[in-house]
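2024-03-11 09:14:02 INFO receiving multi-entity request
2024-03-11 09:14:02 INFO entity count = two
2024-03-11 09:14:03 INFO echoing inputs for audit
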Amino acid sequence: MPCLCRNEENKEKDLGTNKQADAACLTLDRATIGDTLAVSRVEAPEQSPEWGRWLEEIGFVVGEPVRLMARAIPGGDPMVVRVGQSTFALRRVEAACISVKPIEAFAASSLDQVVLEAA
Amino acid sequence: MNEAVVHLYPSGPLMVLIGNPNCGKTALFNRLTGGRQKVANYAGVTVERKEGKFVTASGKTIRVLDLPGAYSLYPRSPDERITCDVLLGRAAGEKRPDLVVCVVDATNLRRNLRLVLAVKRHGLRCVVALNMSDLAAKRGIHLKPEALSAELGVPVVSTVAVQSNGIDSLLALLDGPEVWRAPLPPAGAGADAQASEQGEHMAVRRILQKLSLDDLVPHTPSDRIDHFVLHPVLGPVLLAVVLFLVFQAVFAWAEAPISWIEGAMAWVGGFVGGHLADGWVKSLIVDGIIAGVGGVLVFLPQILILFFFILVLEESGYLPRAAFLLDRLMGWVGLSGRSFIPMLSSFACAIPGIMAARTIGDPRDRLVTILIMPMMTCSARLPVYALLIGAFIPQREIGGMFQLQGLVLFVLYLAGIFGAVLVAWLLKCFTRAGRQVRPLMMELPSYHLPTARNIAIGLWQRAKVFVRRVGGIILISAMLIWFLSSYPVAPKDAEQSAIEYSFAGQMGKAMAVVFEPLGFNWQLSVALIPAMAAREAVVSSLGTVYSLSSDDEEASEKALSEHISASWSLATALSFLAWFVFAPHCLATLAAVKRETGGWTMPLIMAGYLLGLAYLAAFVTYRVALGFGLG
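2024-03-11 09:21:47 INFO inference complete, emitting structure
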C-alpha cells in the first residue's frame, strides 16, 4: 500500500501536524488490531475526492481517537473501525485514506493549540 | 389506526425530526405519534415520507415529519438530499419547518453535534433531544442537558425513546410557547461552507472538552457480542444458522395462515357468487377480482413473517453485521454488503425487496441490486415448482440422506441465485462504473433489544404498503387477464374447453410457435398468459386449459398433476422449470421497478434480459434432456 501522506496538499486540513506526519506514515488499514491511535490526516484518493468529506462527516477528523477492531476474512477486507464512540465498517481502500499515529503523539498541548487556532 | 390522508391534517405548526442514522429517531417518532402515521413518498422521488401528528397536554396539535437520517447537510444519497431540501424549504410541496428537533445520540455526541450546529447555521429554530441518555449513563457518559444547552445556545432535553415516559420532558418543552417563538438564529453565510465546517468541527471539540467527554469509548457489551458475531470463523457460521432458521420459520409458520386465507377467499367467492346472477358480472367479480386479490393475499403471511425477522434483526443491530460479513463475497460480483438485505426480502417477494433497495446509497449498486432481484426464488414460484416436482420427480432417497424432490427444489433456488450472481458479475465486467471501488462506510450500531412496539409499527406499515402497491396492479391485470381468457365466448356446442376459443387461447396458439423449441405445447403457452398477473396463476390456468373443474382445490391439483405427467415429457417439465426460474412473469414487479427507477427504461431492460435468460435456460435444458433420452 503506497504511503498517502503528501505535505504539499490540503494544507488547511493539516492543522499543524506536518511534523508528526513526516515522522511516521501509518494508515489505518495497516494498523494493529486493538491499538488506540489518533487520526493524523484524511486524504481521499484522486478519483473520488468526495470520500474525504464523507469520512470526516462520520467522525474521522484529525486528532480523533481510532482503533481497528476486526478484519473480515478472506483478505482483511472490509474492516471494523471504532472512531470516537461509533463503530464503522470500512473497505480497505477507505481505511487507507486515513493516516494514524500513536495517540501519545497527540499531546494535550497540540490539541489545545489546534482549538486556539480555530478560535 | 387513523387512515386520514395528508391533506386532512389540520394545518398546525410543522416540526421535523432530524438526526444521524441509528440515533433512535424513528423510535422517538413512533413514541410521539403512536400509530397515527402516514407513509407516502416525497413529491417526484421515491424517498419514504413519514408524517404524523400528536396533541400536547394543552391541546396543541403538532404535525411531525420524520426526515431521513443524515450525517450532514451535504447530501450523498437521495434520502439525504430530501432532508436537506426540506430543511432549506426547497422540497416540492413541503412547508419550511417551524421547528427542528435534532435527535442526538448521547453515546455518540461528536458526530451528532456537528449536525445540530449545521442546522443552526441554516437559520432554523431548533431543539435538541438528547436520545439514548440511559445508554450513555450506563457507559459512564454523564451529561447534563443544561450544560450542553448553555454551550449550544438551544434548548436541550434528555429522552429515552424506548421507554413510555422517556419523552415527557420533550413533550413539556413542545407544549410551551417559548420554543416556537424563539428568535431565529442568524443564518450563516453559505458561501464559505468549508470554513464554517471547520469551525463547527472545532466548536464540537471545544464543547466536548469542556464537558470532559473527549475519550475513546471503553469496552462495551456490544464489543463482547461483536467478538463472536464478527469472528472470522464463528461469524459466518452464525450467519448461516440465523438465515437457515429464518427460512425454516417462513415456510413452517406461514402454512396455517395461508390455508386460512385461501379458505376465506373461497368462502367469499362462493358467497358472492351465490348472490349474483350468472353472467359476465359474476364471472368478473368471482373469477377476476376475488380470485386475483386472493392470489396476492396468500403471500402476506410469508412476507410478514420474513419482515418480522428482518425487523428484529435490524432493530437489534445484527443486519449491518451480516452485511459486513457478506461484503467481500458480494464484492466479487461488484455489489456491496448493503445489497444483502433487499435480496433477503426477495425470497418472499421481489416487490418489498425492490423497495428495500432504497437503503443502498450508491445509485449503481442500487440499480444492479434491483435488476437481479427477480431471480431470487419468491414464494409465488413455489406452487408451480410443487406441482411440477410432484408430477415428474419420483419420491426417492439419494445417498440415504436427501429426498430427490427436495434436492430438485434446492437446485431451483440455487439456479436463481447463480443467475443473479452471473448477471451482477457480467455487469461488473462490462460497465466502467462496475470496476470502480465504491465506498462502504457503513455504521455498525450498538446492539439493542428490539421493542415490540417498533416491530409492530414497522410490520403494519410494510403490510399496508405491500397490499396497496400490489393491490392496484394485480386488480387491473387480473381483470385484463380474466377478459382475455373469457372472450370471445365459446360456442354452445363447443367440444374443447372454453379458454381455447378465447383471445388468450388464440394468443397461446400463436405463442406456441415461439415456445415450440423449448418443448412447450400450446396449453402450456396459454397458461403463461395468466401467469403475468401472478406466477402461481399458472397452476389454476393449466387446470382450466385441461378442463378440470373441481371445487376441491386439492383434488383438482392432484388430478392436474396426473394429467400433465401423462401428457408432457420429462424434458418438457424440466424445461418449464428452467423457464420459470428466470422468466419475468410478474407485472407487479415490473411496475415496482418502474416506480423506483422513475421510467420505463429499466423495467423494459429487465424484462428483456430475463426473457432472454429464461429462453436460453429452457432451451438448453430441453435439448440436454432430449439428448439424455428423456423426451
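2024-03-11 09:21:48 INFO post-check: The first strand of chain A starts at residue 26 and ends at 27.
2024-03-11 09:21:48 INFO post-check: Chain A touches chain B at residues 12, 36, 47-48, 50-51, 53-59, 61, 63-67, 69-75, 77-78, 80, 82, 84-91, 93-94, 111, 114-115, 118-119 (CB under 8 Å).
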